[in-house]
Structure formats: structure tokens, C-alpha cells
Design goal:
With 144 residues, the protein is mainly beta. It contains 2 helices and 11 strands; from the N terminus they run αβββββββββαββ.
């Protein structure tokens, strides 16, 4: 029998943390080995965030280099990593070829399980409770 998966959105408090971080322009994207984008366009939903950013290559000069994946990190301005993933650039069994001067627009979609209690307490000082959100038996989150 197949395992039943349920949709668990972020709690209202966790969504508030994300919204405050977006309003404070608190996040940027690092593409490991290639550079970073200081001002991505970030859209937050009740479980997912979408990060859009252009990426301009300054290397390699004069040759095309195959790239099979990008290691992406969503970071805070203080350098703390919020999320990290390795995303494939393979299309039609071929890697992406890059060279200096090339620009591509990237969209990175992330599904969030939860926002850490430590981050929540840092962004919203004075918030109460050890666990900010709990999961009910039906799979949906409720606030304590």
C-alpha cells in the first residue's frame, strides 16, 4: 500500500518570519564556485519559496565549459546558510555549456518543512514556546 503524503503548510508564525526577512532584504543567493546574486527576487507562499535571479558568467574566457549542476545556497547577510541544494543543469542528456559573457535567468523553487525555532526567535524577539508550530493528526499544522 502506498504511503499517504499530506500537505503541511508553514504555520502563520513561520510565514511571518519569512515575510519579515523578505521585507528586511535579509537574503541572497550564492552559486558555489561561480559567485553570488545580492538581490534575488523572492516570493514566499505557505510552504514554498521561489527565488529568481539572473546569472552572468565572467569565466571561462574563450571556451565553452560543460556544467552538470549548480550548488545553490540561500544565505542571510550575516553569512548563515538558510537552505542549500544541488540542482542539475542536464537537459536532453546534455550539460549546460557556459562561457564568459553569457547570462541566464534562474528560478530556484524550495519547499520548506519548517522554519527553525532559533531563527524564529531571532527575527521575532519575545515569541513564546519551544516549538513554534505543531502538527495535528490530520497532517496540518496548528499554532500553540
Amino acid at each position: 500500500m502506498a504511503k499517504k503524503l499530506s500537505y503541511v503548510p508553514l504555520s502563520p508564525k513561520e510565514q511571518d518570519v519569512l515575510q519579515r526577512m523578505l521585507e528586511q532584504d535579509e537574503m541572497y543567493v550564492e552559486v558555489v564556485g561561480w559567485g553570488f546574486h545580492p538581490n534575488p527576487t523572492i516570493t514566499a507562499g505557505d510552504k514554498r519559496i521561489q527565488i529568481r535571479f539572473p546569472m552572468e558568467f565572467t569565466k571561462p574566457v574563450g571556451i565553452d565549459v560543460p556544467v552538470k549542476q549548480f550548488h545553490l545556497k540561500l544565505k542571510r547577510r550575516d553569512g548563515k546558510t538558510l537552505a542549500s541544494s544541488v540542482e542539475s543543469t542536464i537537459y536532453n542528456n546534455q550539460p549546460l555549456y557556459v562561457t564568459a559573457g553569457m547570462q541566464i535567468d534562474l528560478i530556484w523553487d524550495l519547499a520548506l518543512d519548517r522554519v527553525s525555532d532559533e531563527l524564529t526567535k531571532e527575527i521575532i524577539p519575545g515569541i513564546k514556546g519551544k516549538r513554534i508550530g505543531t502538527i495535528k493528526k490530520d497532517g496540518y499544522r496548528k499554532d500553540e
